[in-house]
Amino acid sequence: MTDSGPTRKMTRAKLVVLGRDNCGKTAMCVRFLTKRFIGEYDHKKEVTYRCLKTIDKELIDLEILDTVNKCVGPAATSLESSIKWGDGFLIMYSVTDRGSFEAVSRLKRLIDHVKQTLGIPTVIVANKCDIEGGRLVRTEEGQALASDLKCSFFELSVADSSAAVEAAFAQLVREVRLEFHKHLLAMDKRSRMLQVRHALRNKLTRSKTMQW
Ligand SMILES: Nc1nc2c(ncn2[C@@H]2O[C@H](COP(=O)(O)OP(=O)(O)OP(=O)(O)O)[C@@H](O)[C@H]2O)c(=O)[nH]1
């Protein structure tokens, strides 16, 4: 997150897309960047995309990290560093893959653990709702999980809807902005308290001097 100076607008944000293999992370990122759905992606490495988007009439420079699934083993360290890097998180699962749904809570817990705080902007995305015949996770289960984890929730099909993908990313950016403004307010409050403390200390020093 970056402050643009006196206007105090958030001009940059770093987003991380997490989720089990094959749930549609790359498809989601590519859809958001290009509005297109490309069926197959040959990508087994982490990729960071950069783009300028206007969200709620404000321009924002986004870096989006498309992770590869690595919740276990030595690669988990790298997942932790990706989480440290991010300002906001999009956790995906596929409604056709129960395991990917079960991984969501673990990923959210990892984010909370790495960031050492709750309330980190996180959006949960249930993908592939176009494959109705192969559905293994009901919409209500996704909604209930998101509500338990206090995250926003979107069920969508990256294949079918570019607008739904935009809406999910826009919500994440909104939540990151909110967090940024909360952080600025906290900093302002702290600096006002320091000013008051400084003024009081000066006053005490002066009155002691006058006694002499
Ligand atoms: N039917 C359908 N297929 C989708 C959708 N989104 C992605 N896919 C397909 O699901 C497969 C996996 O998509 P990816 O975007 O590569 O998934 P990923 O999570 O990045 O996978 P990894 O790179 O293995 O972590 C591809 O064959 C996509 O075409 C969707 O909304 N509907």
Characterize the structure shown.
Keywords: GTP-binding, Hydrolase, Nucleotide-binding. It catalyses: GTP + H2O = GDP + phosphate + H(+). By secondary structure, this protein is an alpha/beta fold. The protein has one domain: Rossmann fold. The protein has 5 helices and 7 strands, in the order ββαββαβαβαβα. Strands 1, 2, 3, 4, 5, 6 and 7 form a 7-stranded mixed β-sheet that branches. Strand 1 and strand 2 form a beta hairpin. The protein is elongated. About 35% of the residues are buried. The structure holds guanosine-5'-triphosphate. Guanosine-5'-triphosphate binds next to helix 1.
SSE class: alpha/beta
Strand content: 15-25%
Helical segment tally?
5
What is the CATH superfamily? P-loop containing nucleotide triphosphate hydrolases
Strands, count: 7
Kindly provide the radius of gyration, computed on alpha-carbon positions and rounded to a whole number of angstroms. Answer: 21 Å
User: What CATH architecture label applies?
Assistant: 3-Layer(aba) Sandwich
Biggest pleated-sheet summary: 7 strands, mixed
Structure ligands: guanosine-5'-triphosphate
Taking the alpha carbons of the first and last residues, their distance comes to 51 Å
What is the highest CATH level, the class?
Alpha Beta
Share of helical residues = 40-55%
The total number of structural domains is 1
Average pLDDT rating: 89
Question: Low-confidence parts, pLDDT < 50 over ≥5 residues?
Answer: none
| H-E string | EEHEEHEHEHEH
User: In CATH terms, what is the fold-level topology?
Assistant: Rossmann fold
Using the alpha-carbon principal axes, give the shape.
elongated
